Amino acid sequence: MYAIIAGGGKVGFFLARELIEQGHEVLIIENVGERAEFISNELGNVVLRGNADEASTLAEAGAERSDVVVAVTGDDEDNLVICQVAKKRFGSQRTIARINDPRNEGIFRVLGIDATVNATQMMLSVLEQEIPHANLVPLLRLRNTDVEVVEAVLDQRSRVTGTALRDVDLPPESTIAVVIRDGSAFFPNGSTVLQPGDEVVALTRSTHEPRLRSLFFRER
Amino acid sequence: MGCGRVGARLAQMLTVAGHEVTILDIKSSAFGRLGPDFKGTTMLGNGIDQELLRRAGIERSDAFVAATQGDNRNIMASQIAQHMFGVKRVVTRIYDPLRSSTFAALGLHAISPTIIGANSFYEELTGDKAPALPI
């Protein structure tokens, strides 16, 4: 695989080091001279000095024959533009961007960036998983969609307990896929009655997530 | 978005023409350029922050202009306005002619002061119409 990494900060540097170790061809684009020098001292001749958001730099880097362009600078706007230029002008197969502000995830998706990595969001998810019974925990987002897999442990507040599922007013485009009770999982049907303590795994569109949360956790 | 010389002047012209204007900048000192008689609203903050744009009333706006010094910031904010908020008329300043043509092809209405400036100089100097350069 030939990977172009835009941004030679810590993320770009360690990513390149691991990819090189795995035998991949890597080029880091870094615009600060000192940093570029440091990287080539550490990793060898794998640095191109320049601005990755300029088409001429990407051309010099051989973007049209690259398998993936990864944009990991510290600025969301730069990462977005790098990926868009790579896609539009060089037909990059795959673009991956680092996002700093979780709120920017939507616009990156709408504009066709293939994948995003967001450290803030990851930290949040881990933190939420650490707090038992607290909330709807996002487990994962299905590839290139706005469908999320979420998990919740029901308690006394849940408006979904004590009623057969067919009579529960679930938000649209939401489904309870699996219930884990006393350590074993089962697939619920219309006659299933949920209980406090049940762990439920649900599928929903991100737009309906707040309604699902309020159904699970708001006072009756 | 962006209360530099261009942004401030444009905001003044629009308010004088009777339009409702909100202007954003990350530095409060930038609003000094608007002068004491400015009738529009000023708002401190980054135009690529969707929450700030919402508070600025972007959902009911008819037009969005990105005129900061940063091409990428302008490009990102404009695409947010266009794709996340459905603003009908979006105009973006992009200094870099190459990026300007790339994003014009991606549906942005881009103005490149570099091209406009160089063309004006050429026309003043030679009296001829500026030729189009291959990008």
How would you characterize the overall build of this protein?
The complex is a heterodimer of chains A (220) and B (135). Chain A is an alpha/beta fold and 220 residues long. Chain A has two domains: 2-120, 3-Layer(aba) Sandwich (Rossmann fold); 129-217, Alpha-Beta Plaits, CATH 3.30.70. Chain A has helices at 10-21, 33-43, 55-60, 76-90, 105-110, 119-130, 209-217; strands spanning 2-6, 25-30, 47-49, 68-71, 95-99, 115-118, 137-141, 147-153, 174-181, 184-186, 199-205. Chain A has a six-stranded parallel beta sheet with strand order 3-2-1-4-5-6, sandwiched between helices. In chain A, strands 7-8-11-9-10 form a five-stranded antiparallel beta sheet. The mean pLDDT of chain A is 90. By secondary structure, chain B is of the alpha/beta class. Chain B has one domain (5-126): NAD(P)-binding Rossmann-like Domain (Rossmann fold, 3-Layer(aba) Sandwich). Chain B has five helices and five strands, in the order H-E-E-H-E-H-E-H-E-H. Chain B has helices at residues 5-16, 50-55, 71-84, 97-105, 113-126; strands at 22-25, 41-44, 63-66, 89-93, 109-111. In chain B, the strands form two sheets. Chain B has a three-stranded parallel beta sheet with strand order 3-4-5. The longest helix of chain B has 14 residues, at 71-84. The two termini of chain B are 28 Å apart. The mean pLDDT of chain B is 95. The A-B interface holds A 53-56, 75-78, 80-81, 84-85, 88-89, 101, 103-104, 106-107, 110-111 and B 48-51, 70-73, 75-77, 79-80, 83-84, 96, 98-99, 102-103, 105-106.
